[in-house]
Amino acid sequence: MSPLFLSPQAFADNTQSITNPGSVVSIFLSLLLVVAIIFSLAWLMRRFNVAHSSSGQMKVVSSMIAGAKERILVIEVGQEQHLIGVTSHTITHLSKLETPLSSDSRKENGAEHFKQKLIQAMAGKMNPAVKGAGHDKD
């Protein structure tokens, strides 16, 4: 029933039930429970990386920290792999890898292999005469 059609005594009983200390504690605990559920779901989504969905066309093959807020990534788009630099302000395409990182080396010694590929790619970009050097180790 609407509060307009209630008798003054019935309306007073309704307002007293809300201000009753037991119901205030119950409402507060219910609110805390809802907030705790929201935070726990947000933590689970972050923990299991639910927010980052991909179509499978692009993936990060390898990454390396280059500074406090800088990273160097090898991303795979289709069948091509690209070396990119990521800072807090920009994303820069550094190079396209001529010889993609193999899946075997990623599983076994990914960090060391990535470092060697990065050195080779950067040396080739700075001095094209060095481009062929170091490829005999692959």
TrEMBL record:
Pfam families: FliO (PF04347)
GO CC annotation: bacterial-type flagellum basal body; plasma membrane
Keyword tRNA-binding: no
InterPro entries the UniProt entry points to: Flagellar_biosynth_FliO (IPR022781), FliO/MopB (IPR052205)
GO terms under biological process: bacterial-type flagellum organization
Top-level lineage group: Bacteria
Keywords assigned: Bacterial flagellum, Cell membrane, Cell projection, Cilium, Flagellum, Membrane, Transmembrane, Transmembrane helix
Cellular localization per UniProt: Cell membrane; Bacterial flagellum basal body
Transmembrane segments: 24-45
Family note: Belongs to the FliO/MopB family.
Annotated protein name in UniProt: Flagellar protein
Organism: Alteromonas aestuariivivens
